[in-house]
Amino acid sequence: MWFGIVVLLRLRLEAQPGFPDLDWHCHDVQVRRSSEDPEVEVFPCHKWIRTADGYIELRNEKACLKKKETLDILINHRERDLQHKQQFMRWGTFVEGGPHCVDMTSVTALGPNLSYIRQRPVYNVHYIKSLIERRTSWSSLQELETFFLFNGRENTVAKYVQAHWQEDAFFGYQCLNGCNPLCIRQIHNLPPNLSVTSEMVRPFLPEDSSLGQEMERGHVYLLDYEVLDQLPANTVNDKQTYLAAPLCLLHYSRQGELKPIAIQLQQAPGPQNPVFLPSDAAPDWLLAKMWVRNSDFQVHQLLTHFLRTHLLGEVCCTATLRQLPEIHPLHQLLMPHIRSTLQINIQARVTLLATKGVFDKSIACGLEAIPLLLARGTQRLRYSSMCVPDDVRVRGLDALPICYYAQDALRVWDALHRFVAGWIRLYYCNDEDVQHDCELQNWIGEIFTEGFLGLSHIGAPHSFQTAVEMCKFVTMVIFSCSALHAAVNFSQLDYNIWIPNSPAAMSRPPSQTKGSVSEEDVFSFLPEVNSSCHVLSVLSLLSQPAIDFVPLCHYNEWYFSSGAIVKLVEEVRRELKMLAKDIADRNSQLELPYPYLSPDCIENSVTI
Ligand SMILES: *[C@@H]1O[C@H](CO)[C@@H](O)[C@H](O)[C@H]1NC(C)=O
Ligand SMILES: *[C@@H]1O[C@H](CO)[C@@H](O)[C@H](O)[C@H]1NC(C)=O
Ligand SMILES: *[C@@H]1O[C@H](CO)[C@@H](O)[C@H](O)[C@H]1NC(C)=O
Ligand SMILES: *[C@@H]1O[C@H](CO)[C@@H](O)[C@H](O)[C@H]1NC(C)=O
Ligand SMILES: [Fe+2]
């Protein structure tokens, strides 16, 4: 019997009396025209189905754009797919003024199609836990060192941090290659609120030069934590903690080192806001640097890590589910990189970021400050800073041979960009194809309004006119969810185990005069024993490598396994492998290696 071409297949799970009503996972459905016909048509499914779902419909094509559809029934199917998703996936608000997120408060609501199980090895946080009752300050440097011996002695980077944390050159190194390389930027003029004079910093510059000349040459850099200004600091263990909003000036020396040369702890200049200098008494200068590191901890965790990778990934994932049907090629390309953000972010919102979570109990930016900081951080987002080549150029990182983050990020970006460009060419012949793909335009429009809140000053696209624009944006999404997440996540434990290097909270207010602290006093600014340990135990748990780690550009999805896409995937993986080798070679020559952007260490998506 001839029954035409099969284009859509309906499938339904029926409860049978006597059998428990369970979800079933359907891999695919295979159709043969007759029992003799050797040819099998495969309708991939890869989903969990429930009796309650009624019919679900499967197609046998790989991917196609809406305007290439020839049958009405298939156009209808695309539309029904989206209607269904839009009912199920709605936008919600996590904080006013921050990117919108998925309107779900439990992983159960997400259902098995979109959740995953992260297998983790068991990790011993026993020693840290034993201190969780100790509500006292660290009594001495020695006590911190003993604690570190139990905790950090197997971590070679952490040991390096402990040995060098007081050195100015290492402070500068961390701004470039530590866990938050996104803050530092080159400046050609002093910011108006930094009351540094040329005279003040002359001793720290080359003898034959001046601040003005050094700025002109591009040797002066700035860290500005203005985003923290006047934020309400948390109470930890019933005690007030404090936040600063420092400005820190750094100089790139002729010896090839980047060193801080001036630190002002608060934004508004004045007699109670001195500029600390390397020539000040050692405890003053060390404490000023610790304030900068404390500010960096907040910005790293909430803006660099959570906002720039986790929340951005969630915005793109939600928009993808709502606006791109599963048959859309971009849905297929992006999902492996973004799917997991929904679950991990829902979990983060109900644990880490909730009442009695680690931010509430132990970190200076607690539940009062987080919404304000995320809203300010959203206002300060710039599309150029999300796109590596622009970011590296704007911040003048290309001028610093010691910025391994920038070098590696550029190469990962380039490899991904070539991959995405090749992939776009498979589906879009020209810019008109891009302009006329209404699903794609709705997708980027929704990201612009829900993610970037329609703020045009951010500079993110709200539509795509060209394939080039689309390629840049898609590369940015993949980069942020994979490489950037790796750069800011992998490194955090390494740089944070030695507590004075990255205090999560400060127990005393920022100094308003010079000469007011002694060497012993410095440690009294650190958070109490049990709250420091709380932060570390969470970081340690978050830092467990997944057993089912999927490296960058390794795809398990069926649609990556045949056709022209296979060649593209092979190419990008070959390129990434070469890069991993180059990075390994370079690292073997370095005193402190920079491994975080080596492609074999980059996970394909944000899973933790
Ligand atoms: C999985 O996805 C299919 C197709 O979108 C949907 O019909 C089904 O309800 C989902 N399953 C669950 C358990 O959410
Ligand atoms: C800069 O300093 C002025 C006072 O001189 C102050 O009013 C302003 O708020 C400061 N800017 C910021 C961002 O804090
Ligand atoms: C996060 O960092 C830790 C190391 O600190 C690593 O073991 C883990 O795999 C990383 N996760 C991701 C998703 O990169
Ligand atoms: C520290 O210990 C005190 C009691 O010993 C407890 O009330 C407090 O919750 C603990 N803090 C943290 C952050 O675990
Ligand atoms: Fe993360």
Automatic annotation (TrEMBL):
Q: Which free-text remark accompanies the cofactor? A: Binds 1 Fe cation per subunit.
- Site (described: Essential for stabilizing binding to COTL1): W48
Q: Which UniProt keywords apply?
A: Calcium, Cytoplasm, Dioxygenase, Iron, Lipid metabolism, Metal-binding, Oxidoreductase, Signal
**Positions that bind Fe cation:** H305, H310, H485, I608
In this protein, which residues make up the domain named PLAT? 1-63
Task: Identify its protein family.
Answer: Belongs to the lipoxygenase family.
- Name it: Hydroperoxide isomerase ALOXE3-like
Q: Where are the transmembrane segments?
A: none
| Location(s), subcellular | Cytoplasm
Tell me where in this chain the Lipoxygenase domain is found: 64-608
Annotated GO MF terms: iron ion binding; oxidoreductase activity, acting on single donors with incorporation of molecular oxygen, incorporation of two atoms of oxygen
Annotated binding of Ca(2+), by residue: D23
Pathway it works in: Lipid metabolism
* Signal peptide residue numbers: 1-15
Q: Does the keyword Lipid metabolism apply?
A: yes
Name a single GO cellular component. Answer: cytoplasm
Where the protein is mainly located, per its record?
cytoplasm
Q: Which cofactor does it need?
A: Fe cation
GO biological-process terms attached to the record: lipid oxidation
Stored InterPro entries: LipOase (IPR000907), LipOase_C (IPR013819), LipOase_C_sf (IPR036226), LipOase_CS (IPR020834), LipOase_Fe_BS (IPR020833), LipOase_mml (IPR001885), PLAT/LH2_dom (IPR001024)
Any Pfam family matching the protein: Lipoxygenase
